[in-house]
Write a structure and sequence with these properties.
With 431 residues, this protein is α/β, with parallel strands linked by helices. It has helices at 9-19, 31-37, 58-63, 99-114, 131-143, 155-165, 174-186, 206-215, 295-301, 340-348, 385-392, 421-430; strands at 23-26, 44-47, 55-57, 79-84, 94-98, 121-124, 146-149, 169-172, 196-199, 220-227, 231-236, 250-251, 256-260, 273-278, 290-291, 302-303, 306-315, 321-326, 331-333, 336-338, 353-363, 367-376, 404-407. It folds into 3 domains: 9-68, no CATH class; 80-325, ANL, N-terminal domain (Rossmann fold, 3-Layer(aba) Sandwich), CATH 3.40.50; 330-430, ANL, C-terminal domain (GMP Synthetase, Chain A, domain 3), CATH 3.30.300.30. Strands 7-6-8-9-10-11-12 form a 7-stranded mixed beta sheet, with helices on both faces. Strands 13, 14, 16, 17 and 18 form a 5-stranded antiparallel beta sheet that branches.
């Protein structure tokens, strides 16, 4: 059960309490955290460094291990990992992934989609504590490619690593790509070896795509849609980035996708619906086996073998998918459904706006109203609220426009780089 070392102590405490591990493996800089997380003497503490009393050196364990491979079980549990979700809509859930999920879903399918070989050198700058990080590790094992890990993301150091290590591929979330962009602009030659970028985590802004590809014409961008629970769902290939820039691509090989309404009935092409995913039986290929110690959530999330993702998307006539919103982020105002993504896109199309995030807040007349948090490119000459609201009405219906706009220096994000809308909801109550 990998834990993200960027989590705050309360978040680590929650995961450890929920998972109840029999052993903890940690680095010396996590000793203080480990001391606060488990008081039980039954917990085995294994350190990758010089041990103190009550700790075991992991190197001593490895040196004393038998060289004989362990017996391969003919039957029994195939469970391999418990990876916790990023908790964007509530408390993180433990997701049980099987060995088959890793071997088939992340080794074979990942290599097939990204076209990786043993000549490639992959740089991983995102935490290894999530399924995407494990996928990078599994991909290296399966293809024989080289994996380069950056302990903490720093854009200037990342650019140095790309140049010095001859990195051919890098895995990112859009936030990281956005932070890298000015450094690439200053020295695009440092990325001459970079031929592939694997991007996931949230929708990849089209303006960011255009900027990157203009600077690095050799770059092949794979923007894909995935979930801790579902694994790889769909991918937009490099040759499709210009023709369908807003799409999240076609379903990955072997992955079935349905879009359904609130009654779980299939919606017509072009209509938004909740994304349901199936790829063999749960735990067999890409989809998780179940949640860890959450029987009520397991009952709710699986429907006749299909996994409910909680995401809303639409599908065009050619089968390409387009992300619309998180189901829990949808705003209902005056009986109309408002998808936060379309309001955010309208806001970020304004020349002064760098980022925007939208939530629903209580409204005495309409039930809910749209509140937008906006981060501008420069602090000087900020647009007025009325300017932005008028701008939005050029792109979306009047009932969808923000009724409240708050300017912020930066948007709160969780440890994976996603906007933490729960934090925005808390902030809205203080305004």
């Amino acid at each position: 059960m990998p834990i993200n070392n960027r989590l705050a102590l309360p978040e680590v405490l929650y995961i450890l309490k929920n998972s109840n591990p029999f052993a903890i493996i940690f680095t010396p800089d996590s000793r203080a955290t480990t001391a606060q997380t488990q008081k039980s003497s039954k917990i085995i503490k294994i350190i990758s460094g010089r041990p103190i009393e009550g700790e075991i050196d992991i190197n001593a364990i490895m040196k004393s291990a038998s060289t004989k491979p362990p017996p391969f079980p003919e039957s029994g549990s195939d469970d391999a990992l418990v990876c916790y979700t990023s908790g964007t809509t509530g408390q993180p859930k433990g997701v049980i992934s099987t060995h088959r999920n890793i071997v088939v879903g992340q080794c074979w399918l990942g290599a097939l989609e990204w076209q990786l070989s043993n000549n490639d050198r992959m740089l991983c700058v995102t935490p290894m504590a999530h399924r995407i990080g494990i996928a990078r590790l599994a991909g290296s094992f399966s293809t024989g490619s080289t994996l380069i890990l950056q302990k903490f993301f720093d854009p200037s150091e990342t650019l140095k690593l790309i140049e010095e290590e001859g990195v051919t591929h890098i895995g990112v979330v859009p936030t990281i790509a956005r932070m890298l962009l000015p450094y690439i602009e200053n020295n695009p030659k440092a990325c001459k070896s970079l031929v592939g970028m694997l991007a996931t985590g949230e929708a990849f802004p089209t303006s960011l795509k255009h900027s990157l590809l203009a600077l690095l014409p050799q770059l092949r961008l794979y923007s894909f849609y995935s979930q801790t629970e579902a694994g790889l769902i769909s991918c937009l290939k490099p040759e499709e980035q210009s023709s369908r820039p807003n799409s999240i691509g076609l379903p990955a090989s072997g992955v079935e996708v349905r879009l359904v309404d609130q009654n779980l009935k299939d919606v017509a092409p072009g209509k938004p619906g909740e994304v349901l995913v199936r790829c063999g039986a749960p735990g067999d290929v890409t989809v998780m086996r179940k949640y860890f110690k959450r029987p009520e959530d397991n009952t709710a999330v699986f429907v006749d073998g299909w996994l409910r993702t909680g995401d809303i998307a639409r599908r065009d006539g050619d089968g390409y998918l387009y992300f619309v919103d998180r189901l829990k982020d949808m705003i209902i105002s005056g009986g109309f459904n408002i998808y936060s993504r379309e309001v955010e896109d309208a806001l970020t199309s304004h020349v002064t706006v760098k980022e925007a995030a939208v939530i629903g807040v209580p409204d005495p007349r309409f039930g809910e109203a749209v509140m937008a948090f906006v981060n501008c490119k420069e602090c000087k000459n900020l647009p007025s609220e009325d300017d932005l609201i008028s701008h939005c009405q050029k792109f979306i219906a009047s009932y969808k426009k923000p009724r409240h706009i708050r300017f912020v220096d930066q948007l709160p994000r969780n440890s994976t780089g996603k906007v933490a809308k729960e934090e925005l909801r808390k902030l809205s109550k203080k305004i």
